[in-house]
Design a protein that fits this description.
- By secondary structure, this protein is mostly helical.
- It is built from ten helices and no strands.
- The longest helix has about 35 residues, at about 175-210.
- The chain is globular, with a radius of gyration of 18 Å.
- The two termini are about 20 Å apart.
Length: about 210
């Protein structure tokens, strides 16, 4: 159960950046509710599939956590390297104040396209790949069952659905709040990602030191 709680913070990194900005922009599209529900569905499906794949790959490779006197490359060392790469990636993207050009088409997006976008973003975005790899590999190597990804999945779903929830609860008042959320994410998503990655990285380094 401890491992289930340890991977929860990584859900924040999953949604930070273009993912959350896309979710916000879809709430102002021509079909805000349908598009937002479809986008969240795609994101949730991707977040279910990716960690499961990495989990079973880690099981097949028989990756194990670091143990005293072990000279082999263990899962903990692999995760430390991945987290460092993720931190560098987030830092390098800190000055991208403007969203990608493809986001300009979101206003006229349809539900099918929104679902596909959610699926693709959460499957191929480098930071998301690194986070789902970390979750799946960490749980597998520490002997935790696959269902321990449920907390990570639920928190990711709640976070990416937050713009939709704001829209449903606030209605027209969300028109003024959404641009503020978008601007805040543009300016601060990399800091949020760095903080969460650093937190998990410290835990992994402590595991290696004590092994």
């Amino acid at each position: 159960m401890t491992d289930l709680l340890k991977v929860l913070p990584l859900a924040v990194v999953m949604v930070a950046g273009p993912q959350m900005i896309t979710a916000i922009l879809l709430t102002t599209s021509t079909k805000p509710r349908q598009n937002s529900f479809a986008f969240v569905a795609g994101a949730v499906l991707a977040t279910m599939v990716a960690p499961s794949i990495f989990y079973y790959v880690a099981k097949a490779l028989k990756l194990k956590p670091s143990t005293k006197g072990s000279s082999s490359v263990t899962a903990d060392w692999v995760l430390v390297v991945i987290l460092i790469i993720a931190a560098i990636w987030a830092f390098r993207g800190r000055e991208k104040a403007e969203p990608p050009k493809w986001m300009s088409t979101l206003q006229t997006e349809d539900p099918r396209g929104s679902f596909t976008l959610g699926l693709i973003l959460f499957l191929v975005m480098p930071t998301d790949v690194m986070m789902t790899f970390t979750v799946g590999t960490y749980l597998a190597s520490h002997g935790s069952p696959l269902w321990h990804t449920v907390g990570f999945l639920l928190l990711t779903a709640i976070l990416i659905a937050s713009p939709l929830l704001v829209l449903l609860l606030m209605g027209r008042h969300a028109d003024t709040l959404m641009p503020r959320m978008r601007n805040w994410m543009n300016a601060n998503s990399w800091l949020v990602s760095e903080a969460v990655i650093a937190f998990f990285l410290v835990m992994e380094i402590r595991t290696l030191v004590s092994a």
